[in-house]
Structures are given as structure tokens and as C-alpha cells.
Amino acid sequence: MSEGKKYSADSIQALEGIEHVRMRPSMYIGDVGTRGLHHLVYEVVDNSIDEALAGHCDAITVTILEDNSVRVRDNGRGIPVDIHKKEGVSALEVVMTKIGAGGKFDKDSYKVSGGLHGVGVSCVNALSIYLKATVYRDGKIWEQEYSKGKKTNEVREIGKTNDRGTEVEYRPDAEIFDDIVYSYDTLSARMRELAYLNKGITIVLIDEREKEEDGSFKSETYYSERGLSEFVEFLDGTRERLIENVVSIEGEKDNIPVEVALIYNSSYSENIHSYVNNINTHEGGTHLSGFRRGLTNTLKKYAEGSGLLDKLKFEISGDDFREGLTAIISVKVAEPQFEGQTKTKLGNREVTAPVSQAVSEMLSNYLEENPADAKKIIEKVILAATARHAARKAREMVQRKNPMGGAGLPGKLADCASKDPSKCELFLVEGDSAGGTAKQGRDREFQAIMPLRGKILNVEKAMAHKIFENEEIKNIYTALGVRVGTDEDSKALNLEKLRYHKAVIMCDADVDGSHIQTLILTFFFRYMREMIENGYIYIATPPLYLVKKGKQAKYAWDDKERDKHIDLMKGAGSESSVHVQRYKGLGEMNAEQLWDTTMSPENRTLRQVTIESAAEADRIFSMLMGDDVPPRREFIEKNAKYANIDA
What we know:
The chain has 19 helices and 24 strands. Helix 11 (432-441) crosses helix 17. Mean pLDDT is 86; it is low at 401-406. It is an alpha+beta fold.
């Protein structure tokens, strides 16, 4: 905060009214599904984090109340309550009811801030049926309540206090959101992420909907002393380290705070997560380009100087330096320019050079001081280059054209008639017999079927060229019509010739089916993440039961629904008069049943696969599909209550 500038009502600037948010919520929070619902919490927490970044707050408590209301409390300065000169009402009311109001637009109050396009807490207020703001400031407690973004009373003093800070409690509006039930795991992943990105802040998450065995509420406390270094260690906890220590740097370059931490492991995937002002930039941007440039140039220079590359018969590319790398880049930018409403690609050109310089300095020093680790990294790079050379040949086999001019489609693929990708669906079906049924039951106009034989390769443990040599995976690439490599990134997926905008994973509702589903999802996450990010990957949900009595027949997707159908059908009779069939596999249904329940757009339920937190997804996939058993066992024991067991 600038010297001589006071954080008071005059620091708050307003831009426009609140009705627009209720009319078009998706413009402000992304969507009105679960992602948008959780975004409300992040908006309120972001205000508290901004207070912490400005040096005024070090403790934040987030509580999910029994009725799915949320309370967020911090120990910052408290939102000013004095009268706002321009608006003529309390600054608290301006912050809570004017879209685009807040200290974030006044550069003297906050150097940098997160939050979605500065919509802030007033947007949360607009989308809440009830909201109460309580301010602890200058020895007094102030309070104001609102409904749907409008105040229901004036700001009033309700007591004295020695505390300071702001508390916001709100209940999301069920008229706006599809569902108002909060996920503890989703919030937990984001709070943990925020604690690592902002070291020294204590964040507590409490869930009053669930009690522990000792009678206390379920809760977790997140605190990080070393920041990104700890974050990298957490993400890489289940992977085998290649070098002993995390390489990290923190400092300011050209007035831009840059923090980077990285480590190499023995895996074959690259996991780089980038953040700007605490927002995960999924699509990367100028800071990621700077990181890659610094990493490649420094390692290449060292490798050439060491003479380790002398025996290589081909050129090393930038991608080779990123295999087995887990890295986190976090920059703070005063006026970030994001490409796209989703705030996932940074466009500020002035960020590239500072990040590149920081990475170069950090790595040069580390390589000089740790020659043994340096040798391991370069040997890993050479191995990656050799594997890439082999993989390119395998990939060219996948992507080669046939003599007739078109790409040769897999023989097992039963294609659809339509050529419009936005209307076409590809079903990846477990097993040939279910594949045969699906082929009979589908709508040939827009549904294509591709049976997969057995379990596909676990890509988490395999080298790239092995993946492109795998028959089932080759078929998936060819059927979808996608290629590897774009103008910007030779490893990225090229979706220009994608043939289907829905790829539906359809597996049996048993343990093997779940395993196959996880293997396919691991493949998509590691090698076709762009398909998930664009919303093209879905999971089919075949029914678990068929409940019959005479000519009456109903399907059930869970035990509760099954019991409901049984009660309705038996009437005054006994339960034994109702026949219940448990579907163990898709093959037990005939073509008509499969169409009615699982494939018909009118009746089916498809679950779209999304990535809420890339870092958390990366950690879970490496834990579930990697070599380390104890963390996997612990995860299974902890989550066993969600499992359906066929006994």
C-alpha cells in the first residue's frame, strides 16, 4: 500500500448495477452448475487472500453450514463502513451491492488481486437468497443483511470488539443454481492450493454437515511455510524422485514477483501448473512460455558444455527437457490481461522475460552446485530424446494416410453417417459382445461405436513410443481423427480434424468396468487433455437394475430407486412377486434396452468429465495408477464408503 494513502471509503470505486448478474450469471461465474456454485466461495476467499497479499491478514476460516450456507471469516482490516463520498452510503454497502466495486480497482489499496475479472463479493451477493456481512473494525462490530443483492436493512453497529476482520455468510439461490450442495473435496483442494501459493497464511475448512467419531465437525487446516517447494513435494509424493531436492526461486524481476519450484521424477509425463495472482491458468500463456524458454536454454547450454550430448545422432528438442518434470510457476501481475472470459491464458508480454531470467539463474546455480543431479537430469533428457525419436516413428504409423487419400479408419469402428463433428458421438465400449449390442441399438445417423478389447495400457507407467504402438490406443487416435503437435506446441493435441464432439466411455457397472474406465480416463488426461478441457469426454451411466412385475418394467440406477420401484409395484402383495435383475454387464441388455437406457439422447444420463483442479487431478492419477502402493491403499480406505461392492 502506498505511503500516506489510507484504505477508506474513498478507495472503493463502483462500475455498474446488479440485475445483470442475476439475468446472466454465467457471464460472471462461468456456469450455474457445481463449478459456478464453488466459484462463489473462491470469490469471497479471494478478497481475504488480497488482504493477506497486502500484508494485513494471516488467518482465514471457511465453514460449510448444515444447510449448505457458507461462512468466510478473516482477520484483515475489515471492509470500511464509513460513508462513500460519491455514492453517499456506507462503503460496505457499495462493496456488497455494486458490481465491479472494490479496493481492487484502486491501485493504492491493493498492488495485485485475484478474483474473477474483479466481480468480487457483490456478484456472490446477487446470486444469494440471503447474505450477511459482519465487519470487526476500529473496536466495533458492524452488520448488514441482503437478499438477491439488495440490502434488507441499513449498516448497523451491533457491539464492541477487540477483533478485526470481515465475515461473510451467504446461502446460494436455488432458483439460479442447478444444485446447491457443496463438495468438501472440491473446496479442500482449492484451499490447500491457496495455502501453498500464499505461504504463511493459515486456512481452516470446517464442514458442519459431517461429524467425526469424537463429535467434532469434519475439518482440515492448511498452512505452508515453504510455499511452492512444499506444493511440488505434495504433488510428487507418489512418484520416484530423480534428484534429491526441489529447485526453487522466489524474487522480483522488473517489478513482477516470480516464484518457481521444480523437481524431476522417473515418470514420462510433464506436469507444469501455472498461476497468475492465485488463479490457475490452465491454458498457460506468457509466463509459461518464459519458463519453458529459461528451462530449455539453460539445460541445453549446460548439456552441450558438459559433452554429454556428443554421442547423440539427432537434435534434442525443447520437449525432451520437460519429460518427468513437475513444476509450479506463480507470478503476481498488477494488471493481468487474460485471453478469454475464463481467465485461463495470460497475455501480458512483459511477463515472459522476467520468468525466463529467474528460471535461468535458478537452474544455472543449481546445476553448478549439484553436478551429480545435473548429470542425472541430462541423462533423463537423452533418454527422452531417444524415446521421442522412437515414438515419432510409432506416431507416424498411427497418423499415416492410406493410398486412397483419407486416413484409414480402424476396422472395428462402426462409423456414423453424419459428417458434422458437433452432432456426432463416438462410444468407446468395453468388450466385443457389448460393442455388437451397441452397434445394433445405436442411431446410425450420428452414433459411432468402437469396441475396445480388454484393458487398455496403463499410460502412467509406459514410455511414449509404447503408447503409440498399443493397438487400442492407436485405434482411438485414428477414430477420433486427432493428431499430435500444433504450431505452438509439438506435444499438444491437434483438434483441427476431430470427427466427434462427444466421446462417450461406456463400461460395465462392475469393478472391472470401473478399472477400464479409469485406464481410459488416465489416457485422456495424460495424452488428450485438450479433449477434456473442451468438454468432449463423457461417461455413460447404464442402469444397475431392471425391476419387473408382469408387463410393468422399470429401470433403476441405484439401490434407493430400486427400492422405490419395488414398493410401488408390490402394492399390497409381497416383495417376492417383483422380479429384480442386477445388470453386471452391458452384454446382459438387448439392443433395445441399451438404446432406451444408455444411448437415447431423450432418456440417457451422460456425465461430462471436467477438470476442476489440474494439480489435484494430476496427483490423484499418479497415486491411483503409479507404482507406489501405500498412498493408494490409504486413499481407498478413506474413500471406501463411496464404493459399490458386488458381493
